[in-house]
């Protein structure tokens, strides 16, 4: 195993100790995401006053948010959490210790176009949604408290989140995709079966 691959796996396993437990994953990952989606949807459905009228469906914040919530996030979660957990053959419940970066590399190398569209789209849309949302939160809540402070224009924020968040993630993904998949052939068979459970990868 290469040094880079070993470092990646060590970092991933360390992160799992903090968030990928039955309680922590729900409290730190699924809970906040669900609360955010539900609150945004309820606001859109229930707002009646002009002052609280939801922003247009075609606004950048709405487009990026609903694309992530309705398309990219479900596909990502099903692919990486739900489908690998199926106990029936040939998947045989790929456990957390087996579901590492080799799984991701196998997807990138076997279905490169689809995998890059999913990972790239999820990454780009999420960071730009964060950028648009940060501007709204700042202007509504923080700017009155800190009138002399500026967080830059939308274009500036988009450049910052792309350079600081999206680009490093996508660069790491690129170099990972170029490394050989280092796992047993039997595990690769289970990986393939897990991916093919998704209609996205069967097409």
From TrEMBL:
Q: Which GO terms of type biological process are on file?
A: lipid homeostasis
Q: Where are the transmembrane segments?
A: 57-75, 116-139, 160-177
Q: Which GO terms describe its cellular component?
A: membrane
Tagged with keyword Transmembrane: yes
Keyword Kinase set for record: no
Going by the UniProt record, its keywords in alphabetical order are: Membrane, Transmembrane, Transmembrane helix
Domain Mitochondrial adapter protein MCP1 transmembrane per the UniProt entry, residue ranges: 72-158
Q: What is the name of the protein in this document? A: Mitochondrial adapter protein MCP1 transmembrane domain-containing protein
**Organism (species):** Ephemerocybe angulata
